[in-house]
Amino acid sequence: MNTEAFLSAPFVVQLHVFSAVGALLIGSVQMFAPKGNLPHRTMGILFVLLMTSAAISAIFIRQINGGDFSFIHIFVPLTIIGVFRLVLSARRGDRKGHRGQVMGLFYGALIIPGLLSFIPGRLMHTVLLASL
Questions:
Q1: Interior CA angle at 8 toward 12 and 74, to 5°?
Q2: 86-125 burial code (b ≥16 CB/10 A, e <16)
Q3: What letter would DSSP give residue 34?
Q4: The whole model's pTM is what?
Q5: Which of 9, 41, 120, 130 is the most buried (most CB within 10 A)?
Q6: 3-state secondary structure of 68
Q7: What CA dihedral angle connects 16, 10, 7 and 129, to 10 degrees?
Q8: In whole angstroms, what is the distance from residue 10 CA to residue 6 CA?
Q9: Quick one: which of 25, 27, 34, 43 has its CA closest to 104?
Q10: What tens digit of pLDDT does each residue of 34-55 get?
């Protein structure tokens, strides 16, 4: 693992990684934990905050394309819309809709872009795979 590459990355990149990894961990726990209780709601709020942080910080990460957005930035508005719909479904008590939004965010805004972050030339590839 190349921790030096991560530590020398701009703060916004580090914030983005910590937010996304935190949301991934919390989301993974939430899938299997009991639903509807105070810990679930508390972890859910943290998940929403981390997802929002990951999406907003991603807007400012543009080093690869010379200051322009890259294809992976399509996940920013999708994440913002998904978080909004997730909160709305929870507040309305729409369990089926809420579950669908959570799963959509987890896979569509964490897993897919997370896998894309391992493309050669991107930081996560450099940090975790370049030395292999």
A1: 35
A2: bbebbeeeeeeebeebbeebbeebbeebbeebeeeebbbe
A3: P
A4: 0.93
A5: 9
A6: strand
A7: 60
A8: 9
A9: 27
A10: 999 999 999 999 999 999 999 9
